[in-house]
Specification:
about 475 residues, globular, O-antigen ligase domain-containing protein, 16 helices, single chain
Amino acid sequence: MQMTIFGLILLPICLFLAGQPVRLLQLALITQVFEAAAAMVIGGSFGLQPSLVPGLLFLGYIGLQYALGMRYPGERLVFQTLLPLLAFAGWAIGSAFVLTDVFAGTPVWPQRNEFVGIMMPLQFGMGNVTQGLYLILNIAVTVGAALFLTRINIPYRSLLAAYLASGYLVVFLGFWQFASRLTGLWWPKEFLNTNPGWTIVEQSIGPIPRVQGPFSEPSSMGSYLAGVTFCCLWLCIRSHQVMRPRLLLCLASAGVLMSTSTSGILALVVGLPLMFAYAMVTGGGAGIQRALRTILAVVVAGVVVLGPLFLLRPEFGDAVSMITEATLEKRESSSYEERTQADLDALEATMTTFGLGVGWGSFRSSSLIAGLLVNSGVIGLLLIIWFVIRLSRFKIRAQARTAATDPARATMDGFAAALGGGLIPALMAGPTINSLAFFIQIACLVGTASRVLIGDQRASSRTNLRWLGPGDKLQSRAA
């Protein structure tokens, strides 16, 4: 085990914050963006992601609290809401041990295929172990964080602010790398790219460099900033002023375009109009006005910033045309054909195994739905759909009981939009979601909504009590 420079900086900070669980969650949200870095290298080939360090310390804090007899007020609501996700985890881990033996020999694309273009016979391997560990850890953090956030006096907006701060950080590093690729400016490659599990390459579309910032590849940066963009847009529409969302909306949108990620760009093209339409349908007149003001602000900012640039440097217009053409022609590329074939092979493997799948972590597909089907079967996919429906209803129920200016309302709105924005690119080009930040966002949504409903229940019980006169006798009145 060897500590990296990144880990030597991160570990003391985490230890200093070990008794401050909110700070650990904030730090996990921020450090998640350093996907290509490693806090430490284990065995020469496995890099511990930076976000796992504060995540593990947070789990240790929650475990110690329970060992000392601490109980959280929203346990029932949290476990009821997360029940489908917990059932999915149990089914997925069990399938990795059972189905890899039952359907041994079935052709699969393994998680780390060293023989490009060759499918391998199904057998239990390290892909099942690593993917299973990621799943267990992510869901454990989800449960622990959701329980913790049902306590009173939680600064919910600070968690949302940490997520938005990570967006600013990604944009800053993205522009820095873009300038470095164009001008030769120093770029801290040795500090940011220390995870041996990733092969970092510099990609370009003609003379235009593709930017990945602190991530392992441009598509990861585009997908992450798509979630940030959705979050900022919804905050603007709902008039929540957290970390200047209009500014970050413009910067994050530019970052998605700068990454030239097809999935990220398509997420904006498809998802943002749907979000505006939803706001206009559900928000009434005020929602429509806020949506139109947000559109106008983004358009004006784009014209003011980019207009003079295109007038002074016409070659930038040619570059935009080249990127647009490359994005539209993505369906004709060999990589697109390979990814499509991987999804078709995943569906074939699902049918071969009678809809049960080949076991969690056995097959690397190209998109999320195909990945869930082939790795966890129809049962796993139905459990995830059940969880999404339950989470959506739970959030709507809690939102109806909060005022528009309530910090909990801003947190629920922001993280719900971020989850949607992060999910859309994964549906197009993400075999799995292993980002700890994604699961912390789920925890923040569940924990905040539970706290709102607990407070509402207690307020209702208090209103059912009244004094009955001189006898000073407090009795309960029927609701």
